[in-house]
Write a structure and sequence with these properties.
Elements (H helix, E strand, L loop, with lengths): L10 H8 L1 H5 L1 H14 L2 E4 L9 E4 L2 H9 L4 E2 L10 H11 L16 H9 L5 H4 L3 H16 L4 E3 H6 L1 H11 L6 H12 L16 H28 L5 H6 L2 E2 L2 E2 L2 H31 L2 H9 L4 H12 L4 E6 L3 E3 L2 E3 L4 E5 H4 L34 H18 E6 L4 E2 L8 E3 L1 E6 L1
Parallel strand pairs: 2-10
Antiparallel strand pairs: 1-2, 3-7, 4-14, 5-6, 7-10, 8-9, 11-14, 12-13
Helix pairs in contact: 5-12, 8-10, 8-18, 10-14, 11-12, 11-14, 12-14, 14-16, 14-18, 16-18
């Protein structure tokens, strides 16, 4: 009888929540979540045909925050940690020999394994260690801004700056040679942007779920082949990079198994730049649309941390993660049963007016700004300090070099339910 008491979502709205095209229409998806936070803040989505497993959609900030911090009740591992169609979940199980996770990584582990793996590289991404990289990152930022000026006073900010810049930074830390960065970018876009025809590089305007799953699996295999070779090199000749740390790491006295090791590389190589790229492009979009705010921060650099933080909230690159209930629980006025699958929708949570006044407004002075774009609790993003540092340094460089900036066309967002953001940002600028 408990299932009859669930607040079930209208099938059309349920389809919109999981449709990648919804997230390309940003204002439309925000309208949808505004409606759902009021009418069904915890809504049960069950498809009319079994195209995907049923799940709870969680849209309110307080509920997502509670789930993020309660890692005993809401688990990462039992079911897929990213929303997937039933076909994709079954494919992953066949691909991995039983696991619903195509890649085993920090985001798929629960305690106590999660913290043991996290500690292997955590020191690399702490502020005191990152301070030693500031000069190197500033040089990479300078080269990125040089690229922006290559073709005159108009450019696509995404392809010239926001995509290659954080990619180069994280690959330097990881230990991937610069000549291999285009391959890393392509594989990341295929893995995270598999639903977007411009990013998946398939040449097909419409791909079936099966074709998208095959594309993602191919990217994972290519990543694994690349990092298996890098592991052999770093075991033979360790250097001062994260790849050497991973290749030679032990947990409970044992070397990492191949699947866990490859997953560790992949999550750093892919998530380590794609999300920062999206936030960087979001910050530039907001500033290009608001010349007054650009002039203000140009005159007063103390505003920059606020712009960085607000860009991360406003953009919300990681749009959701899934959790599985370890036990019965009360959440958002609903009875969640053990084994239920739940979607923490960060886009909805980061635009909850109960937490953020006028949430669609880009407000660099927003304080406090306790957004959920990095997650919270034990699974909070490992690279959050690096992301903030990269964005601050890049915008210091841009503000030094650019006098005025404006949009030179309509920005376009990627078609993706998972990791999203701008895929094009045409800008027009004048040199300082």
């Amino acid at each position: 009888m408990a299932s009859q008491a669930r607040t079930a979502l209208d099938p059309e709205k349920g389809r919109a929540v999981i449709d990648p095209k919804s997230y390309a229409d940003w204002n439309g998806v925000l309208d949808l979540f505004d409606d759902l936070r009021e009418s069904a803040p915890l809504a049960w989505i069950e498809p009319e045909d079994p195209v995907h497993p049923p799940f709870w959609l969680v849209t309110r900030y307080d509920d997502v925050m509670r789930m993020s911090k309660d890692n005993a009740t809401f688990l990462n591992n039992p079911q897929s940690v990213v929303f997937s169609l039933t076909e994709g979940i079954e494919f992953a199980k066949n691909f991995t020999g039983g696991s619903p996770h195509m890649v085993a990584s920090l985001v798929t582990f629960d305690a106590p394994i999660h913290m043991k793996y996290r500690k292997l590289t955590q020191e690399w991404f702490m502020p005191k260690n990152l301070r030693g990289l500031e000069d190197e990152i500033r040089a990479i930022a300078t080269a990125a801004v040089d690229r922006l000026f290559e073709d005159g006073t108009e450019a696509d900010f995404v392809t010239k700056v926001s995509a290659p810049y954080p990619l180069h930074v994280v690959m330097q830390i990881l230990g991937v040679p610069e000549e291999d960065e285009p391959r890393m970018l392509m594989l990341t876009q295929q893995m995270f942007g598999g639903q977007d025809e411009d990013l998946n590089q398939s040449g097909m305007a419409e791909m079936t779920p099966e074709q998208i799953t095959q594309l993602v699996a191919g990217a994972v295999k290519d990543f694994e082949a690349y990092f298996a070779k890098l592991t052999a090199e770093r075991r033979a000749n360790p250097t001062n990079d994260v790849a050497s740390t991973i290749a030679n790491a032990t947990v409970d006295g044992e070397p990492l198994n191949d699947r866990d090791m490859m997953g560790y590389y992949i999550i750093l190589a892919a998530a380590g730049h794609d999300t920062t790229s999206a936030s960087t492009a979001g910050a530039m979009q907001a500033l290009a649309q608001d010349p007054e705010q650009w002039a203000k921060v140009k005159a007063d650099r103390s505003l920059l941390p606020g712009i960085v933080e607000e860009a991360i909230r406003w953009t919300t690159p990681v749009q959701h993660f899934m959790r599985t209930a370890a036990e019965d629980a009360q959440l958002g006025g609903q009875h969640v049963k053990k084994g239920d699958w739940l979607m923490m929708n960060y886009v909805a949570a980061n635009h909850d007016p109960a937490q953020f006044e006028d949430p669609r407004k880009f407000d660099a002075a927003r304080s406090p700004n306790r957004h959920l774009a990095f997650g919270a609790g034990a699974h909070q993003c490992l690279g959050l300090h690096l992301a903030r540092l990269e964005m601050r340094i890049l915008f210091e460089t841009l503000l030094d070099r650019i006098d005025t900036i404006e949009l030179a066309g309509e920005p376009q967002r990627s078609t993706s339910t998972f990791v999203g953001g701008l895929k094009t940002l045409p800008v027009r600028f004048t040199a300082a």
